[in-house]
Automatic annotation (TrEMBL):
Signal peptide segment: none
GO MF annotations in UniProt: delta(3)-delta(2)-enoyl-CoA isomerase activity; enoyl-CoA hydratase activity
The species this protein was found in: Lutibaculum baratangense AMV1
Pfam (any one): ECH_1
Taxonomy of the source species: Bacteria, Pseudomonadati, Pseudomonadota, Alphaproteobacteria, Hyphomicrobiales
Lineage top rank: taxon: Bacteria
Compartment list: Peroxisome
Keywords annotated in UniProt: Isomerase, Lyase, Peroxisome
Top enzyme category: lyase
Broad class of the protein's primary localization: other
SUPFAM superfamilies: ClpP/crotonase
Protein name, as recorded: Enoyl-CoA hydratase
EC number(s) recorded for this UniProt protein: 4.2.1.17
Gene3D superfamilies: 2-enoyl-CoA Hydratase, Chain A, domain 1 (3.90.226.10)
Amino acid sequence: METTRNGDVMIVRLARPEKKNALTSEMYAGLADALDAAETDQSVRVVMLLGSGGAFTAGNDLSDFLSNPPRGGEAPVFRFLRALARASVPLVAAVDGDAVGVGTTMLLHCDMVVASTRSRFRLPFVELGLVPEAGSTLLLPRLVGHAKAAELMMLGHFFDADEAWRLGLVNHVTEPDDLEPTLARLAASLAAKPPQALRATKRLLRGDPAAIEAAILAEAQVFAERLLSPEAREAFTAFLEKRPPDFSKGA
């Protein structure tokens, strides 16, 4: 992960392109630290979240995830999710290539998102024997309605940038070469606004942060239980063995 500054804008880039920026515990800790720093540094007016190497993020690195499963509220992943929910500084993101799992759910906390024409989004939690996270069971139905949220979360299929735009998950769809320049212009426009008015408007738009944190906690509790389930063990084993999972024996 790389964190840089461009004037009033903090740029946070996922920089593990050889693994499609799959997230490790160390990367989650870095993301949480960056968002915490942006909250305390009043000179930061906007945070840009970027991927690299033609991908946003493939989601969790399953090998790292199995070696370092999240335990307790201070686990790096939960620190990051809380930082997203509590952020008062505007968050914007550029999505290129795959945005899988948390790569999609984190976008629900962003104020503006630009996607490239080759972007693909997916919420494969059920397929892995798990449940969604990041408060997405609250935020996604709020955005797209219950029926569509159930389709995306329960079936877990990929959907493209055009569908993400129709659903309201992204603001603009661009060609890949125009992606980061477009987001940079949006970030610069936001950074030029009165910062306290901007943060207050974000707070009003987002609603009660305590409700979002409560959803994150409720999801985390079930997520932790599901991690120990036979279904999750079979899903992870099948993934690592590169074979289809077999859920025919039930729980």
